[in-house]
Specification:
With 371 residues, this protein is an alpha/beta fold. The chain is 40% helix and 15% strand. It is globular and about 70 Å long. Pyridoxal-5'-phosphate binds next to helix 3 and helix 4.
């Protein structure tokens, strides 16, 4: 029996009828663009994130891009972004015409090192994008106080942190905007692309509503040069079904993480995730990421046993060809670069069984017991 990194089929099997019913309803109504289910999902997701407003958009990258546009961030501006994140966090800044200024991360959590971010603030810095990486909140006290000191806007990249809390508050409720991805493999995933933007500011919410829909106020009356970036109605209908299960799935992820913690605790070669287990949804385990000695060999060994792991991310943004223009060299981001050699994402999803987790732990033990 194979154990994949994520198993979308296992989850679908538990909700197939409900999903099919929701999709059929959209077909029957034929309200495909900004239809009833979009508004319904937006209301439900805003309530879930404990903010007044949510707007559905086409994907998580667009969520970040439109958020920056709504804040009038563009050419000549700099935006602070962690070096260890998915490239989309930086691409959104580039798409807005601004410059991503990369910041190294904290070795314990892999989230942005706020002290280093502050040291990179210049007269051109307009915003900071804290990424709640792997499902664990960034240091939001640090981010918010630093942003206040320098007059920076805060756009949270919560694409991996649906439901995660920081000192009791939901990720996506701190900054001017919270940006979410509903890519299928995310903790709350659609059956195609999707994204969402949360905010507590009615004026900013209104601006996103225009920007995502060609800048249009009413049909053919365009107030802004906008985009076509709307959450699809069919995807919204599916997301509404899945949102009702999200807490249950998150609790299962956290239970799985606790079992991994326990079973891996005796293995010297494995560094377990550092998080506050007592904090309510402090980590929602989009990914369970360990540090591993001889990581690449371990990954291959586990594959031979039918256990499929991932690396998030193998090539840090400053080392990617796409961002060679930033002019970084080896050694500029030591924590991120070291992490890229050692991190390993173990299989993680709600339907993972105790048996599966034991098998992964046994596999890891067997690898280090060789020779
Ligand atoms: C998935 C992801 C995105 C991009 O979301 P898409 O929906 O794929 O565009 C951005 N940032 C992070 C941290 C992500 O994990």
């Amino acid at each position: 029996m194979n154990i994949p990194l994520v198993d979308l089929k296992a989850q679908y099997a538990t909700i197939d009828r409900e999903v099919q019913g929701a999709v059929r309803q959209v077909m029957e109504r034929c309200d495909f663009i900004l239809g009833g289910a979009v508004k319904e999902f937006e209301t439900a997701f805003a309530a879930y994130i404990e903010v007044p407003h949510c707007l559905g958009v086409a994907n998580g990258t667009d969520a970040l891009h439109l958020a920056l546009r709504a804040l009038n961030i563009g050419p000549g501006d700099e935006v602070l972004v962690p070096a260890n994140t998915y490239i989309a966090s930086a691409l959104a800044v580039t798409q807005a015409g601004a410059k991503p200024v990369l910041v190294d991360v904290d070795a314990a959590t892999f989230n942005m090192d706020v002290a280093q971010a502050e040291a990179k603030v210049t007269g051109a810095t307009k915003a900071i994008i804290p990424v709640h990486l792997y499902g664990q909140a960034a240091d939001m006290d640090g981010v918010m106080s630093m942003a206040a000191r320098h007059g920076l806007k805060v756009v949270e990249d919560a694409c991996q942190a649906h439901g995660a809390r920081y000192k009791g508050r939901r990720c996506g409720s701190f900054g001017e905007f919270g940006c979410f991805s509903f890519y299928p493999g995310k903790n709350l995933g659609a059956y195609g692309d999707g994204g969402g933007i949360t905010t507590s500011d009615a004026g900013l919410a209104r601006k996103i509503e225009l920007l995502r829909n060609y800048g249009q106020e009413v049909k053919y009356k365009h107030l802004l040069k906008g985009y076509n970036s709307r959450l699809d109605t069919i995807q919204a209908a599916i997301l509404k079904v899945k949102l009702a299960r999200l807490n249950e799935w998150t609790l299962a992820r956290r239970r799985n993480a606790a079992l991994y913690d326990q079973l891996l605790s005796g293995i010297r070669e494995i560094g377990r995730p550092r998080y506050d287990a007592a904090a309510d949804f402090g980590h929602v385990f989009h990914l369970y990421v360990v540090r591993a000695v001889r990581r690449d060999e371990l990954l291959e060994f586990l594959k031979t046993r039918g256990i499929f792991c991932g690396i998030h991310y193998p090539i840090p943004i400053p080392r990617l060809d796409a961002y060679s223009d930033l002019g970084h060299k080896k050694g500029d981001f030591p924590v991120t670069e070291k992490a890229a050699q050692e991190i390993l994402s173990l299989p993680m999803y709600a339907e993972l069984t105790e048996e599966n987790i034991k098998e992964v732990a046994e596999g890891i033990k067997a690898f280090y017991a060789r020779r």
